[in-house]
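User: Could you write out the 3D structure of this protein bound to pseudouridine-5'-monophosphate? I've included everything you need below.
Assistant: Certainly. Input first, then the structure.
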Amino acid sequence: MKEYLDLSPAVKAALLAGEPVVALESTIISHGMPYPQNVETALRVEETVREAGAVPATIAVIGGKLKAGLTHDEIEYLGKKGQAVTKASRRDLPVLVARGADGATTVATTMIIAHLAGIRVFATGGIGGVHRGAETTMDISADLEELARTPVMVVCAGAKAILDLGLTLEYLETKGVPVIGFGTEELPAFYTRKSGFKVDYRIDTPEELAAAFRAQQEMGLGGGMLVTNPIPEAYSMDPVRINAAIDQAIEDSRRLGIHGKETTPYLLARVKELTGGDSLASNIQLVLNNARLAARTALALARQPR
Ligand code: PSU
Ligand code: MN
């Protein structure tokens, strides 16, 4: 494994010392936001994790290496290259690594590399899930399968309504993935605090999140845990407006015949276009909010004996 994995000195030192580390993904940089806001946000998220007392480990595949902890230049490179970087999910890793190529890691791949490195907590914006119409397209993100098998806690702001949220929850239930609402009983829908769907459990403190994750792993249940953290009230969007933009984006993607791994990036970009800069501002704030909660939870986990 050593020949594949490449930890930055700061991440390596923190892991060796048992200090809290928070994994961060890179598809959100290359495919989730436009340049230069993507690079600015990635650096701000890292800073937020540091301010909360943990070490950030932004994850990507660079030159065929599975990297945990990127330099500013590497983040700038991924942000500038944007959609030209390969969006790397689980199935992409073998060929990218064998070729010595680059890849921006999705939630699934970030979980894989975090786990290989020994990182237990990961913060992002939104996860992939069951797409609307999946009963005929079978478009279900590999993120869900990864949550079922890889022992990493993923802190997100719920899932965008570009997905079928009800079916996404059903899938996670079948796979035995606990879906936790942080301070809420309702699944947040990324841009908004409410979705109309219930989470499995409401938890109000990072300490209890850490205890639940520890119990899951110590019992040998395996798999990950999904923590959904609602966007702060001040930045949440008008549901009518955002849902109209989402419906329009889905209609456009169907008309254009967009499918496969292009679907999610297309929908993210189209929703942003249709809502002007507002959705981007909300997106940035919710990621920072998740980074803070992930750092606090990583701290709580590090304080409890391993
Ligand atoms: N949803 C978002 N923002 C994102 C993504 C999803 O609101 O940036 C990205 C994440 O990297 C996620 C990936 O893991 O898209 C899911 O892609 P797919 O649906 O193709 O599995
Ligand atoms: Mn898909």
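The chain has two domains: 1-119, 128-306.
User: Perfect, thank you.
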